[in-house]
Amino acid sequence: MKKIGILVVAFTVLSCAKTEFEEYETTSGNADFTNYVAVGNSLTQGYQDGGLHNEHGQQESSYPSIIAKQMKLANPNLVFIQPTVPGNGSGYMHLEYVNGKIKVIKAFDSEITTNDPSAIDDDPTWSFWGQKGNLGDSSLSYNNMGMSGVKLVDCLSGGKNTDLNFNLLKNSLNEYGRFLNFGDGANPISYLYHIKVSKATFFTCWLGNNDVLGWSTNGGDDGPVIDPNGISVPGLYLSQLSDLDEFSNKCDSVLTAFSNMGAKGVCATLPDVTSIPYFNTVTLDAIGDDVWIREGADTNVVRKATEEDLLLLTASDELANGLGKIQSKPLKHTVVLDKDEIAIVQNRTNEINAAIRTLTYQHGFALADMNQFMKTLTNTGLSFDGVDFSPTYIEGGLFSLDGVHPNSRGYAVIANEFIRVINGFYGSNLQTVSVGNYRGITFP
Fold this sequence. Notes:
This protein has 444 residues and is α/β, with parallel strands linked by helices. Helices cover 28% and strands 12% of the residues. The longest helix has 25 residues, at 339-363. The radius of gyration is 22 Å and the shape is globular.
């Protein structure tokens, strides 16, 4: 197994007697870290375990927050403001011992009556988060603008969707984006506008994951936009695969905004979403029996699953309820990504990544190839601070309980990769962090 270390030998020896940052000279190189701004989605916001929460500093361990702390050692003038949520935030998944076995307990869901007694509900203040005078006050300016659920094509209006308020509606209905002011129907404010007024001197951009992820985690189906009353909005869909031309044009608009303000920064490619634990935990080998699936979102074809299909993590609930065991009761197509859908999302991911690479080079920014980085994790595993990591669910050490997002330790690994790229491209000397100092999966 190939081993990749993140600490130099000299530092490893000294770390027994010295603190992490003593006698390590940090420099900015030809970058200016005075006003570091991070744009992106849930990965940037620090989402993990199926929720946005901070009762043990999980959100404060977002990769931009970790990077900012290292930048501040090189530039004491840096001030990094992140809109953290209170306590339990939106609620989250956790582990419990049940009948002598460890069980994953989902977050409390007010729309069902079968919640586990120990399910964690959202924080009492969550519904007020983002309102003026509260944490995440939308009248303030933030350096971490990560917004769970946002797609790059939602960053500004126009493009494939002709309704100018299309993007405003989706963003304004997103509870994870309440810390940003999106205006109203008469005076819409775009995500791009917040980028343009950020006055960033340095940025990281990891937008685009949701442009392929939502469609994939919904089994290759287009999920509707749901309004605050629980009613689907006609003609609006959250999880469509983004149109490539629209993605490219809007990505160029985002990078042009940073270029126009003279900022330097790093753009990241998208991982192959089919490689994460969410798609590789519920397997035919683990089930040990045939599984019947409905193929595709628009067909009535029912067949046995093969090794070329991916059963989603959510398929475990369907299987526990008896679905998938016989041909007359197949798994719902929304919990299966069949072989044809896998090819579709991988092809679109490759196309989007090609656009990201081209635009990044055209604008003269650094590129963090997270697609290749994740392939290394999947194919050979990684080793940090003497600990081996893999993409295996729970046991792998880097992913949180939702099987999609990293845990705090995983975010530290991502931060180190960004730091490596920043140092190499801009000649800075930022110190990487000790991954072992960050929380992994919390066991009962």
